[in-house]
Amino acid sequence: MATLRERQVYRERVLTALYEASEGNRLLGVPGRKLRNDLRIPEDDLAAACTYLAGEDLITVDWEPGNTPAMVSLTHQGIRRMEAEEEEGG
Fold first, then answer.
1. CA–CA gap between residue 84 and residue 90 (Å, rounded)
2. pTM of the model
3. CA-CA distance, 2 to 83, in Å (whole number)?
4. H or E stretch at 70
5. pLDDT tens, position by position, 10-24
6. Which of 30, 33, 74, 75 is buried most, with the most CB atoms less than 10 Å from its CB?
7. Alpha-carbon dihedral sign for residues 4, 30, 21, 89
8. Alpha carbon 50 to chain centroid distance?
């Protein structure tokens, strides 16, 4: 299982990848398998990151059987957070 710092990094990487892939459009999702492969995040850790971010209302997740994200997309709140970070230079 990932450490707290690793989990935080995974969450930020997921948000950043979604924001870049969707260009800030919440109607565009990213397949969970593509996220896992592109980010090289272990499947269990990706599922945990997605569960956390969905709980914070930053992303929405359509799940496949076996606790695998099928499609992941940013919510309006997630886009606003990423835009605010971009404006701050983060």
1. 9
2. 0.90
3. 28
4. strand 68-74
5. 999 999 999 998 876
6. 74
7. negative
8. 6
